[in-house]
Design brief:
Layout: E1 7-11, E2 16-22, E3 33-43, E4 48-58, H1 63-74, H2 87-97, H3 99-112, E5 126-136, E6 141-153, E7 156-169, E8 176-184, E9 187-194, E10 197-202, H4 205-212, E11 220-221, E12 230-234, H5 237-247
Parallel strand pairs: 10-12
Antiparallel strand pairs: 1-2, 2-3, 3-4, 4-5, 5-6, 6-7, 7-8, 8-9, 9-10, 11-12
Helix pairs in contact: 1-4, 2-3
């Protein structure tokens, strides 16, 4: 990935398209923002679309709940570290943050093996530095595969791989973004958003309590003129189980 900016190539012999740079998933997710950059491979014969992404997701949520999730993942010593010198990650940083800010982070990673200071534009609710996805034509969705690399949660560095699943379903009635992150089978976090409502639940009772103990009026984000209203709420274990079952069908 030596090119700066967006790049697209076509291999007419093998009917393959390769692209890199900022990637627009065409998501319509209201006040849940998604920024993606990386690479895309499209095999036109099989109609396979594979994406290797850096993805920044941002949304209004309980600070206490997110702090609990951050602590659980940071303290999980069994999780493998992510590779901060991964070419797709470095390229994605430059596309999303700009060359100057990105090069500062890349230099920090090279010197210290971690990011010492994150720019404000990178302090998002969930930042994935290694997210591989493919297009599922049956479900009309982008679905993750392989382990998921988490860069940071807001301003707290994570830089670890977790098991999990991420899916963005394209629907006329409203796109659905679902994120399931698993430290181990007994320690997991589940978020699902559609039509102005973010639902979440975890195996961690303190995470759940942080949501349920938040007063209803404090769960709502202010909506600018023309913006879709937004609120977060406690989800159900059934919704999580249904998602995992349907994802693998």
């Amino acid at each position: 990935m030596s090119f700066s900016g967006n790049y697209l190539s076509l291999n007419t012999k093998y009917c393959k398209i390769y692209g890199e740079g900022k990637i627009d998933l065409g998501n319509e997710t209201g006040q849940v923002s998604i920024q993606t950059a990386g690479t895309i491979d499209h095999n036109q014969i099989d109609d396979d679309v594979i994406l290797d992404l850096v993805m920044l997701t941002d949304f209004f949520f309980s600070e206490d709940a997110m702090k609990k999730m951050t602590k659980d993942i940071q303290e999980a010593s069994s999780l493998d570290p992510v590779k901060l010198d991964r070419p797709t990650f470095e390229k994605g940083l430059r596309e999303i943050l700009g060359k100057e800010e990105a090069d500062k982070l890349i230099a920090q990673a090279s010197l210290y093996g971690e990011f010492k200071k994150l720019p404000d534009s990178f302090k998002k609710a969930l930042v994935f530095n290694d997210l591989k996805m493919k297009w599922n034509n049956n479900s009309k969705s982008y679905q993750s595969f392989s382990k998921i690399g988490i860069s940071n949660i807001y301003n707290k560095p994570i830089n670890k791989y977790v098991d999990g699943k991420v899916e963005l379903i394209k629907k006329r009635s409203g796109d659905i973004l679902t994120i399931y992150l698993e430290i181990n089978p007994n320690n997991w976090f589940f978020f699902t958003y559609t039509r102005g409502v973010m639902q979440a639940i975890s195996s961690d009772i303190d995470f759940n309590a942080a949501i349920t103990e938040t007063k209803p009026d404090k769960r709502k984000a202010k909506a600018e003129k023309g913006q879709e209203p937004y609120q977060f709420m406690y989800s159900t274990d059934r919704k999580k189980k249904d998602f995992l079952r349907e994802f693998d069908e």
